[in-house]
Amino acid sequence: MVIYLGADHRGFNLKERIKKILHEQGYEVFDFGNTSYDEEDDYPDFASAVAKKISAEPERDRGIVVCGSGAGMEIVANKFKGVRAATAISADQIYKARHDDDINVLSLAADFTEEEDAGKMVKVFLETPFGGVARHKRRLAKITQIENVG
């Protein structure tokens, strides 16, 4: 599994901490920026770079995006076929999102997330398998149909 990261200026510091943790844990990590703090950057640039990679291998790879609210990154990521992004509010919520909805992009809200909590959410995101329950598969198939129509 490859982990793709992206963050704007508001998420930059948290992304850098997450990147360090992931490297220490032996994950293969690609950082799509921003690579330095830039108050004038725009979250769609980084979210789209990550989501494009996830869209190419939605069952294999994972993305983590960080901005102030988490919402902007999530919105952009979900524009890409095969991407299922969710903004984290807790490790328990991310467990359900991975297990039930097979999310492949985690969006973090740097303005509202402590580093320790972010670490827990990332761990759960990366370690929780999709449960594969029939009703969840059926719902994901409906999402794929919606993507193919649009």
Number of helices: 6
Instruction: Please give the alpha-carbon distance between the first and last residues.
Output: 29 Å
Biggest beta-sheet profile: 5 strands, parallel
**Coarse shape:** globular
How is this structure best described in words?
With 150 residues, the protein is an alpha/beta fold. It has a single domain, classed as Ribose 5-phosphate Isomerase B, Chain: A. It is built from six helices and five strands. The chain has helices at residues 12-24, 43-56, 71-77, 91-101, 115-127, 134-149; strands spanning 2-7, 28-31, 62-67, 85-87, 105-109. Strands 2-1-3-5-4 form a five-stranded parallel sheet, with helices on both faces. α1 (12-24) crosses α5 and α4 packs parallel to α5. It is globular. The mean pLDDT is 97.
Short descriptors:
single chain; 150 residues; alpha/beta; 5-stranded parallel sheet; 6 helices; globular
Set down the secondary structure blueprint.
Elements: E1 2-7, H1 12-24, E2 28-31, H2 43-56, E3 62-67, H3 71-77, E4 85-87, H4 91-101, E5 105-109, H5 115-127, H6 134-149
